[in-house]
Amino acid sequence: MKTLGSRCAFLIGFLVGTCTLYVFLRQVWFERTFSTRSQPDGLEKTAAQLRELEEDSKNWKKERSALFNLNHPHHKGEDSHMADELYKKVRILCWVMTGPNNLQKKARHVKNTWSRHCNVVVFMSSVDDPDFPTVGLGTKEGRDQLYWKTIRAFHYALENHGDEADWFLKADDDTYVVVDNLRWVLANHTPEEPIYFGRRFKPYTKQGYMSGGAGYVLSKEALKRFVDGFKTKVCTHTTHVEDLAMGQCMEKVGVVAGDARDTNLRETFHPFVPEQHLTSKFPKSFWYWSYCYYPISEGPNCCSDLSVSFHYVDASLMYLLEYYTYHLRAFGYRYRYQPPAPLGYKNEAWDRSEGGHSYSKEQPAIPRGPLARVESPSRTDRKPVVMPPAAAGEKDPPAAAQDDKQ
Amino acid sequence: MLSEGSSFMKGIALGGTFCLLLSLLGSFTPGMQSSPEDHHHHHHHIKAPTKDELQSLSDSQMVELSQRVRVYCVIMVQPSVLVYWSTAKDTWGKHCDNAVFYSSESAKALEAVDLNEQDEWAKLRKALKHAYDNAGDLRWFFVARSTTFAIIENLKYLVLAKDPNEPFYIGHAMKSGELEYVEYQSGIVLSYEALKRLVNVFKDEDKCPERGRALWKLSEEKQLAICLKYTGVFAENGEDIQGKRLFNSKSVGSLIQDSMDKKNLDVVEGCCSDLAITFSGMSPNQMQVMMFGVYRLRPYGHNFHDSLIFLPPEGSDND
């Protein structure tokens, strides 16, 4: 028989229990983040995947073991008419050196990232794979096969795609290439010139040769001479050291080793990852010091703003570089390096504006006058306001940002 | 006595179970006692102005906005890890209108305000008070540890159309029970008005004690939120036009890796915002790479005609 005291005790205990647990739960359990985006559920995800595959087929045409670019990536809100023009005029076939064991580990990430900016992409392997797709070169795999694969790959490219491109790039499946910047480097040359570009090394050859890992690109004339060289036996399989052998052949057939550095003489093709070039102090005994044709710069001067390639890039760095290059930016930032437009690429849309900026060799002026936007030609953008630069430790209020102070 | 004791214990057990059940059912919302100033806050999300919104402003309005959006960076450093101080100074700190470093103690070669304080909350209070007193005509305050990397231009863009004479407390907003607070690790943004109210409530030892009196010590980010809440300032989540986080508490490398692990079809799209403001936990070398990636590396021929132009800082070579 419960006494009154017992009942009271029970009630008090009940209240104490409730309150204690409530406080405990509030502190520990109810922690959550604000989020406007919810994780898509299973069904939504499948639908999204199907949409992506559909998108993919709109962007690529798979034909004859190559991927033909139908619609290279564009960004919302950007004005890419210059890049689009170069895309049409400087057609690049990218061939990627890979192998059957590396398709899922490495080549797949190349396919997902930078190769989408090429006009044509061909993945070269020892074995045919119609799904990926890869071309089977009929060689074995291994370091000693590298020059054989290269010889056959270039022959294949000229024979099957000679009319579909002006320039022919060789890259490894751990090379990251900024194809838009490659077009800028090449735009001041013609495919009829016997010339090739890359990261120039100096030993063993008179004019130097291009580092294999950093990628190198041949003009159509250079490619023709390469293939002819093998027909006439001027060039043969001398060594498996692919980049050196390539350089020796190029020299024999009269193809010029080009200077790919930007107008500030900064290198564009890089044999290592950005972190190493930007922050490492290579030991003086390292081979790199004696190999580079041009003087080496350490620190920020190592690398052009319009860098073309990096090497030893693993899967996650591929995506990170794609994010840095094509996605992440500082709003409104006016880059220090203002590259000149390639010769003959006068920008009609810009010229239309009064006081317009000439995009020839000199640095273009900071935009003045109404800017004509290409996407909606009827609307003109108001001229942007220029913020004065932050000067370290400045305590006085800066002069007001005047739009005419340019 | 024994029967009462056992009744009491039974009561506790039953009460606890009751509470747990209700919470699990979700119908039990632990409500905080509402104070008169606790108006229902509708706008928890902050987004940058759209291009159209900026285009619709007049020239003079645009100039006014640009003059107003200048940032005082409060950067907390540890003398034991000097390299983060020098890295922040050499990288993103250069893009602040004024970058001031605050340290728990003085150290040789470290140029920082010595707070002479080890307690995290007390350090934050002192640093914020110092920033308020030395703001000059800067009206936005960004608080971060030196292990965080910030893209200040994107921060300015986020708050471009916001009036710093209104209270703003922005970052990655989290919720702990009923308390909404901004995560410290990914950076905290305060408008002048918010900081002014905060410095004022610092004087109130009941609402905003310098040494916490709770049974278990609250983190400094939560204490900050509580003090601000008393002054009517609430946490808001900074996000981009697609709703992606702008303030990240992880490094860009681990966010990319997360996106890869989730097997997103587009790893980069599924990772991070194009106009991200902060990343945290990156090594000094990775921060230098980010400087290159943000302020230099780009694909030729792609242009964004932004309505505001930020010029590069003077005397710098990595941006």
UniProtKB/TrEMBL annotation, chain A:
| Localization per record | Membrane
Gene3D superfamilies assigned: 3.90.550.50
The pathway this protein participates in, as annotated, is: Protein modification; protein glycosylation
**Any one Pfam family match given in the protein's UniProt record, by short name:** Fringe
Select a single GO molecular function from the record's annotations and give it: metal ion binding
What keywords does the record list, in alphabetical order? Coiled coil, Disulfide bond, Glycosyltransferase, Manganese, Membrane, Metal-binding, Nucleotide-binding, Signal-anchor, Transferase, Transmembrane, Transmembrane helix
Q: Classify the main location.
A: membrane
Q: Please give the name of this protein.
A: N-acetylgalactosaminide beta-1,3-galactosyltransferase
Q: Which gene encodes it?
A: c1galt1b
UniProtKB/TrEMBL annotation, chain B:
Keyword Protein biosynthesis carried by entry: no
Keyword Membrane among UniProt keywords: yes
Q: What GO MF annotations does this protein's record show?
A: glycoprotein-N-acetylgalactosamine 3-beta-galactosyltransferase activity
> Where in or outside the cell?
Membrane
Q: Which family does it belong to?
A: Belongs to the glycosyltransferase 31 family. Beta3-Gal-T subfamily.
Per the UniProt entry, what are the Gene Ontology biological process annotations, in alphabetical order? protein O-linked glycosylation
Q: Where is the signal peptide?
A: 1-34
Q: GO CC annotations? A: membrane
Describe its membrane topology: Single-pass type II membrane protein
Q: Which UniProt keywords apply?
A: Membrane, Signal, Signal-anchor, Transmembrane, Transmembrane helix
Q: What is this protein called?
A: C1GALT1-specific chaperone 1-like
